[in-house]
Amino acid sequence: MFGYFTKRLIQIVVVLWAVSVLVFVMMSFTGDPTYMMVPLDATEEQIAQARRLLGLNDSHLVQYGHFLSSLVRGDFGRSFVFRQPAMQLILERLPATLEIVILAMAIALVVAIPLGVYAGASPERASSHAVMAGSLVGISLPGFWLGMVLIYVFAVKLQLVPSSGRGPTQELFGLRVSFLSWEGFRHLILPALTLSVGTLAILIRIIRAEMMEVMKQDYIKFARAKGADRRGVLFKHGLKNALIPLVTVFGLMMGDLIAFATLTETIFAWPGIGKLLVDSIYRGDRPVIVVYLMFVAFMFVVVNFVVDILYAVIDPRIKVK
Amino acid sequence: MMKNGLAGLTRRNLFALALMSGVALSGAAHAQGKSLTIALTADAVILDPHAANELTGNIMFYHFYDPLVSRTPELGFEPGLAESWQIVDDTTWVFKLRKGVKFHNGDELKASDVVYTFERLKKALMSNLVANIASSRAIDDYTVEIKTPKPYAVLHMALAEVLIVNEKYTKAMGDEQMGLKPMGTGPYKLAEWVKEDRLSMTAHADYWRGKPKIDTVTFKPITNPATRTAALLTGGVDVIQDLSVRDVASVKANAAYDVVTRPSLLNMVIAIDTREKSPTIDLPTNPMRDRRVREALVRAINVEAIKTVVMNGFATPSEQYVPSSHLGYVPGLDFRKLYPFDVEKAKALMKEAGFEKGFAMTLDTTNNRYVNDGAIAQALAGMLARINVKLNLNLMPRSNFFGYIRVPSDKSSFIMSGWDTPSGDAGNMYSTLMYSRGKKPGFGQANRGSFANDEFDSWIDKADATADIKQRDAFLKEATQVAAREIPMIPLHYEQDIYAAKKNVKVVPRMDKFIWAYEMDVN
Amino acid sequence: MKRFAASELFHSFRHNRSAMIGAAIVAMFVVMVSIGPWLVAQDPYDVAQLELMDSFKPPVWLEGGVPQYLLGTDGQGRDVLASIVYGSRISLFIGFTAMLGSCVLGAALGLLAGFYGGKLDSVIMRIADIQLSFPSVLTALFLMSAFGTGADKVLIALISVGWVVYARIVRGSTLRESQKEYVQAARVSGLPNRKIILRHVLPNVLTPLIVVATIQVGTFILIEASLSFLGVGVPITEPSLGLLIKNGFDVLFSGLWWISVFPGLFIMLIVFGINLLGDFLRDELNPRLK
């Protein structure tokens, strides 16, 4: 077990390092951010001074060296634009993103589990076909477009919910959250709904497929033969076994949600890390982009690690290697 | 019914009710002082006035800090922290500070703070703001002497952009904290800044101009124009910046609101390459070296159509390179009258110059920096196609643009960008954008078309050699005449600023686009 | 043998309603992008043809609509229908070409890794692992932010994220196949590796590749749309469907819905059609579910 932990730990460090190298190499392709910072009438000396202040005077290799050495000291570098530690900028906005991601995940699970179980248990019914067609539509539509349509219908036309932005926030365990007040929650509904649709559609399909597999298993047939009622069999035996594989895709789904949050947050002007990334790309704010990607990579690696452990706990047949 | 309802309340509900009424009460107490909420298009990124120069930040800066010389909404200049100044010799100015000016922390403003500010700026990102200050020293606590590197008649105007910080406080805070916790002599103190949500400030009771009329000012960043309008109409916000042109009519029709517009200083201009060989033109010589071709380009562009269709009427076609408020503006001179839109005449000029068949080149511009920049570029392409000039569009996000077009501009032939000169002086624009490149350091550094005209340069040299502001104006006017004749750049239009506010709010639109709560009031 | 498989496939295709619908949608799009440009009145990419005065016309059935512009116009006077026809061309071209590129690159790397094993294998698979720990949208978004806009750059970005899945499948199959006796025998008999790969290994991994490739075209169309929507995809002068949506987004709140809603519907339709086909192929070609 201990060996496994160290192995995974080394793996995490290697992944993060690879990401940092890759990002640094790629970023050397982008335009020089100095020109966005200095006024248009800046002279050569002023530009040189700005470069020095932003730490852009050195070669990329030296810059990377600086980055790594300060990384070891826990310093992730600072934003060109905000002149604040990049990590702090990300952490400040993280609660907003987690809020919609978690709510989206919850919506997806709550809707997908019954639908998936149903479609998997009686795959030949017309309503099951409708569910499947619906989920295929959900996979096929661009999420950002759906968000726009939802805004147009529910915010602009019906004026039921606000069209964008985050509502009032409250402190909860030191984090700023918005779901505690009704007004805050109203702001949350559309973005979370938009974000959930893709995941929801995929979940339905996964659960259905697993359910169909499970239904073929002998113990289900036994249970049915013993006269257990259908609903009980479905949810007690069927669902339980169908859900195990879900744990493995949890990491992937979190990844997708975080990724698509960039689009959702941009549409809804939701002040999370996704919008920060997109804004930083527009502004050429290299340090924030680097730290964002490393941070997200770190999150994925950790989530996948937890998933592996969970999987081993849930399904004892699998031994942690 | 009522009784039943009340009886049905549980203890917990009552508790909640009590809490809520408490909230309401504190809200009422709050409302005794005047408060104002303003929606801006973006949030500030940093609150250190020496580390950034973008509109939203500038709006905040001038609430927290003051300059030595203040700019009026109409771009006039009046005493600020300095109550008077005099020119001792060609390169020496002496500024007398106002006495008893209090920083937010109670410190009194001293000459040493001013000198420190200049020194700090020299090492900061915005060092260009003090490029015309060679040295400065405190003669006594309230007198500062400034030496300029050369005669500079408009130093006081340039100083309107230099915000004075407190030496002790700034040293103690360090650069990073200065970006978060501004502290100056300005009319407002920072109360709370929740990034991308709100920035609120409270009145500085000891402000030297007198206590602000509005006690609490809150700025909210709302990027989407429609959402901004909605925020105004639903009452959450009192004033909005940049009312969407599509919403102007409906807001105007509503008696509860005012729409305020004014032309801004931002002139959209196209730089024309005049080099022997142009990077994107596949011809042995650059056709645009011929003045007739440049004139044809001007005549082929229908600025009025761009104004009505692309800008929905909210633009002011530019007469010259600088607005009428500026030194160097020539009354009566108008590009639109000099070279009116006339496709036939433009074609004739092209033919005369031997380019009847036209040529192809690339227009470089942004797609997210100026109002409708991408749409203007597409409209230009359509218009120039009629004189057989095929415009390929290269639209870039601003993060790439400014590095891409940077002098020596070796990838560009035709560049559209905006230029504003809040200093109120054409000299700054001319020496940066049109003065021959490489002649003198600090001149022609953004001359993207490599325009070179000795006569033009000589007028700028003369203007820079005098410390007399009237003479400077006269020399700059001569330069304007030369430029209007030679067409180094095509001026298109000034963007227009549109604000909307509740009727009970007095909004003072400023030429420099700043929104300053100190000038506003709520009834 | 091959013909038999094809005809069996064709047989079940004819009895599968959703597969037929999917095929019909895809066919419709192929027709639209190949002959559409001759049917629409306007070339939306030719700025000289645009009439600024005709901007923001609503669809023909709404008040103010004109028959000339069936689905209305955008802020440049561009016909929305014509834009969709031209935009679909770009979206489909990018989706399909990027899929081919990913497939070739991924299959090549997978074959190499699986067949030769050793260091080469672990290097390729480590890269694949790292890449898989990132959602492809994010990787593509990041690559585009470094490259700048352009259809060619979108292709590179998509291929960079798309090859991994092929490499994994092909490597797995290759490993399995190369254990088999006939491949071992071929190796011993001195047949050159290239021939073994082409003749024995590749044909056996084709089936799963076809399934993945079909679905990937749809995914790529969606990713390209996302990139263009964020302004880091194709250039504004030659908009894909995603960029059309973005252009309409800015004016959506003012009630000008048609500029963004129609292109979105078309994206949904084509990806839906592709996915229907992909589902069918997976069910038919994947023995596990059969």
Automatic annotation (TrEMBL), chain A:
InterPro entries: BPD_transp_1_N, MetI-like, MetI-like_sf. The keyword Transmembrane applies. It is a multi-pass membrane protein. It comes from the Bacteria. Residues 94-311 form the ABC transmembrane type-1 domain. It is found in: Cell membrane. CDD domains: TM_PBP2. PROSITE patterns: ABC_TM1. Pfam families: BPD_transp_1, BPD_transp_1_N. Gene3D superfamilies: MetI-like. GO terms for cellular component: plasma membrane. Keywords: Cell membrane, Membrane, Transmembrane, Transmembrane helix, Transport. One of its GO terms (biological process) is transmembrane transport. The chain crosses the membrane at residues 12-31, 100-121, 133-155, 188-207, 243-269, 289-314. Belongs to the binding-protein-dependent transport system permease family. This is ABC transporter permease. It comes from Alsobacter metallidurans.
From TrEMBL, chain B:
It is found in: Periplasm. Transmembrane segments: none annotated. SUPFAM superfamilies: Periplasmic binding protein-like II. Pfam families: SBP_bac_5 (PF00496). Its main location: periplasm. Belongs to the bacterial solute-binding protein 5 family. This is Cytochrome c. The lineage of its organism: Bacteria, Pseudomonadati, Pseudomonadota, Alphaproteobacteria, Hyphomicrobiales.
